[in-house]
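Quick check before the chapter quiz. The format below is the same one you will see on the exam, so make sure you can read both the input and the output lines.
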Amino acid sequence: MTLRQTHTVPVAAAKAGISQATGYRIQSDPTLPSQKKRRGRRRPDPLADIFDTVVVPILQSSPGIRPIAVYEELLRRHPELGTGIRRTLERRIRAWKAEHGPEQEVMFRQIHEPGKMGLSDFTAMGKLGVTIGGEPLDHRLYHFRLAYSGFQHAHVVLGGESYVALAEGLQNALWTLGGAPQDHRTDSLSAAFKNLDKAAKDDLTNRFDTLCQHYGMTPTRNNKGVAHENGSIESPNGHLKRAIEDALIMRGSRDFEDLPGYRRFIDEIVGRINARNAKRIDAERGSLRPLPARRTTDYEEVTLRVTSSGGFTLRKVFYTVPSRLIGHQLRIRLYDDRLELFLGGTRLMTLPRGRAFRDGSHGHVVNYHHVIHSLRKKPMALMGLVYRNHLFPRRAFRDMFTSLLEQVGERAACRMTVDLLALAHDRGCEAELARHLEEDLRQNRTPDIPALRALFGPSEDALPEVKVQLADLTSYNQLVSNAASTLEVTT
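Here is the expected output.
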């Protein structure tokens, strides 16, 4: 209105930042909106007669009931109301609860001190659709975070919320950080405690407490089902997963060549997050407890005997080992993603850890190198082998066996497949042989075993030429005469 004193309505409206129509409306009626009388209802209130008599008693008797349930009940009792009352009913219920409803839980914001609190949690990652070599990766992330500085560490976990996953991930985080906080908080780890008897739960609790004592931390847990008590890690879980999702989209593919490659991808994302909080993290490091001289155990240890089947069964998974270990008792360290085998104090090998299927059937971790020498003697054993599908190192071998069964019958198929596995074992040509088999499958032909042996056999040029120089036999006569002369002088 001040601009209107010296300018026309269009110019004054433009300078005031309002539309020309609004300028003309204000000129015709300069009364402020707050001074105007509010308009009344344009249609009769459909809830006037029933809200206090029907809806309020329902809300008072069932405080947790949802508005949609009240809406459906009203339509059942009073079908004449129609479906258009839903939003009106929801607004009325919300207003009534604000004035007469029960008290709600208050969230108390906390002051976080440097070096005081570290938190751990697990988060499922199945919905991201990550694959390794084309196969879906069923996994979750162990996530550690410092409440004050926001330092984060993530570790890919292949199993569930187990002690070994927690111990390995936590120790990796602390040694990456270079110190330990005073307190360490987790949720109730329901997946780790599920289906455990009291003795097993106590054992798991004792091991976790011992782990925290090794680093001088006080272990704490939030109340079961009260996620907001772990809020300093629950909310960052979602932020981290969204950052990973965005990075996967930018990458253009969710498939990784191998598990270490995917782990490096996760480490890079977490590293970028930590770089944004570098100053606060460096400031908090001065308040952390120093680390002990070495890590503590982050595995479970069991002792099993290798059976005549050439392996052992652990947690409903059968593992093969070299047959020379049959009858020996092995000490096995069980990690989240691997098994380390010891014979006495000697470390023998590392095996990838397998998992039983969700339907309860046994899993298999089989290495054809361990059993190929016996299969050569008994090739027909391949036909009914329990772990046959897990024996083939690559899909081309399995597909070729299926094709041979149709083309040449069981006996010849078993013999030829064992010959192919033996060739891959002897010549170390597994990948190259698989490519030849894929081509044979495309051409719908049986593999030429002699030709493959010649192809992957050592070339004549690569064989060393060994020349043997035979000694002159007459030199032995001189040696005998010298020995006789020496004997006479001594006598």
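If your answer matched, good. The first helix runs from residue 9 to 16.
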